[in-house]
Amino acid sequence: MRVSKPLKLELEYIQRMMAWMLLRDPATLAHTRCVQLGLGAAAITKFCHAVLRAPTIAVELNPGVIEVCRNWFKLPDDDDRLRVINMDAARYVADATCIASVDALCVDLYDHEAASPVLDDESFYRDCWRLLDDGGVMSVNLFGRDASFERSAARMAAAFGPDRIAKLAPTRDGNTIVLGWKGFDLPNRELLAERAELLQNRFELPAGKWVKLLSTFTARPTT
User: Fold this and answer.
1) Measured between alpha carbons, how far apart are the two ends of the chain, in Å?
2) Are 205 and 220 in contact (CB under 8 A)?
């Protein structure tokens, strides 16, 4: 986080986690129900809450992370649009009362070694799919020495459908952002480019680059 600009998304992979915005009607962004699984340094949570001014929930297992974000990273206290929940993300997405309650789901779940995602099986991604309302989008950060993009993306495709998964090319640091969506077809390149221009002008995000880096994912057949 840049101290002088605590709401600015600095890291390249964090910016790309917001690529879900390309798949949503820009007019609905302020009403997008946002959930983050894994708080990190609270960059996405602060952006959704204070910049998009959208209803925002962050789910974080480690209470120490929440405390650090509140004390040092300018994460505000809960209010009528913000809730930070100390809870296991797997339990949260499996909660039947949360079904179809989310429009934008950001998944960035790693332990202190960051070797691979801590939740990365088909059952977890099916719960994520159920969590999303029709028109909802999930973005997932895949990173780590033990991570397998093909394996993880295939699990997402099994949960979301083979034509409901796309990826952005890896960042220089090796983060691959995967998008999964529910209840609609991927917009064409012309519409994505139009939305990207709006996002760049309004939020100073490199959304035009996201469109160029975006490609659909097709799982390889198993033998």
Assistant:
1) 45
2) no
What are the CA-CA distances from residue 83 to residues 60, 87, 145 (Å)? 11, 12, 32
Domain map of the chain by residue range? 12-216
The dihedral sign for the CA sequence 147, 150, 153, 154:
negative
How far are the Cα atoms of 97, 140, 196 from residue 212, in angstroms, in the given order? 38, 18, 10
CB 107 within 8 A of CB 141: yes
* Contacts (Cβ under 8 Å, ≥6 apart) of 33: 54, 55, 101, 102, 103, 104, 133
Q: Name the CATH superfamily for 12-216.
A: Vaccinia Virus protein VP39 (3.40.50.150)
Kindly give the interhelix angle for 122-131 and 149-160, rounded to the nearest 10 degrees: 50
Q: Which of 88, 94, 102, 92 minimizes the C-alpha distance to 34?
A: 102
Q: Any idea what DSSP says for residue 2?
A: B
Whether the pTM exceeds 0.85: the reply is yes
Residue 5: pLDDT band by 50, 70, 90 thresholds? confident
